[in-house]
Recover the amino acids of this structure.
């Protein structure tokens, strides 16, 4: 089955949502190089609300082009945003779909926002969404399979 694209720009970046509150990604899980902070305009769909552009500072590996967002920080930022606009939406399921051009996102913040159809012209889907799996350290039985 063909994958549907939402944005009109070519897919860009890999994306990883870190569900572990006690794990911080100072090194890239793929290449083990140091990551740094970078602000992205994320395009997020929230159930019972619709699409939203959210400026979020995330960990970024320029070598792998991997954006790593911490789920607890993202949900706190979404809850704060919706506490002002629509408190009933807080806690609804959401999906991070891609990124928006920063220039267009900043214009929207200044009040020169476009309609949703025109906004999709400036959205880039993710190339791939990766899952983070953390094996906690410690002693394990010898017969247990080794993590790969």
């Amino acid at each position: 089955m063909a994958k549907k694209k939402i944005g009109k720009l070519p897919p860009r970046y890999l994306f990883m949502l870190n569900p572990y509150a006690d794990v911080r990604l100072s090194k890239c899980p793929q290449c083990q190089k140091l990551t740094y902070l970078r602000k992205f305009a994320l395009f997020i769909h929230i159930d019972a609300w619709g699409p939203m552009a959210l400026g979020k500072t995330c960990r970024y590996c320029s070598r792998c082009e991997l954006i790593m967002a911490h789920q607890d920080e993202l949900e706190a930022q979404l809850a704060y945003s919706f506490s002002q606009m629509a408190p009933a939406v807080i806690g609804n399921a959401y999906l991070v779909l891609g990124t928006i051009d920063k220039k267009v996102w900043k214009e929207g913040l200044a009040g020169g926002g476009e309609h949703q159809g025109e906004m999709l012209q400036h959205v880039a889907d993710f190339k791939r969404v990766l899952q983070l799996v953390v094996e906690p350290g410690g002693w394990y039985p010898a017969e247990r399979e080794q993590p790969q």
